[in-house]
Amino acid sequence: MSTMTVLHNPNKELRVVSEPVALDRLGSKEMKKLIKDLKDTMKEENGVGIAAPQVGVHDRVIIAELEDGTPTAFINPEITERAFKLVDSEEGCLSVPGCWGIVKRHRSVTVKAYTEDGTHVSLKANGLLAIIFQHEIDHLDGILFIDRATDLRKTGSSRI
Ligand code: ZN
Asked: Are 2 and 55 in contact (CB under 8 A)?
């Protein structure tokens, strides 16, 4: 198990817009290592999602815990459809310790991405997974939940 240091706000690395991953890196040893390290780090921090820029890597790679609890990598993820309906989501962030808040998020989203083995997928997510995708893809664009949140406070239970 090899974990990486999670950067904390206001580290300016968190504000960098990450670059798309070149397709010839999909399935490479180097990409597999990054994904494994991100999964290990997420687990160590007891999170349900993490994005590469949170460890200072500006590749468009996120890990999301699926409904069955499996941490899964999504490379170059893009939201292609958003539900019109918004929901109030209680969120925290591994990069903003000790802070939680309410963020308006789309109730469901459709995401297209590459998986770890280079397969192109499109999936519709609801509930917590939809929130994780929106939160983690924001990280790839240098956006933190505190930019969008209302009612910031020092207690909460979210592990996003
Ligand atoms: Zn976060």
From this structure: no
- Spell out which residues have Cβ within 5 A of ligand 1, the ion: 93
Whether residue 30 lies in the annotated active site: no
Please check the confidence at residue 68 and state whether its pLDDT lies above 90: yes
Q: At residue 50, what is the residue type?
A: I
pTM listed for this prediction: 0.97
Buried b (16+ CB within 10 A) or exposed e, 101-119: bbbebbebbbbebbebeee
Ligand 1: centre distance to CA 3 (Å): 17
Name the superfamily (CATH) of residues 12-154: Peptide deformylase (3.90.45.10)
Q: How far is the CA of 83 from the centre of ligand 1 (A)?
A: 22
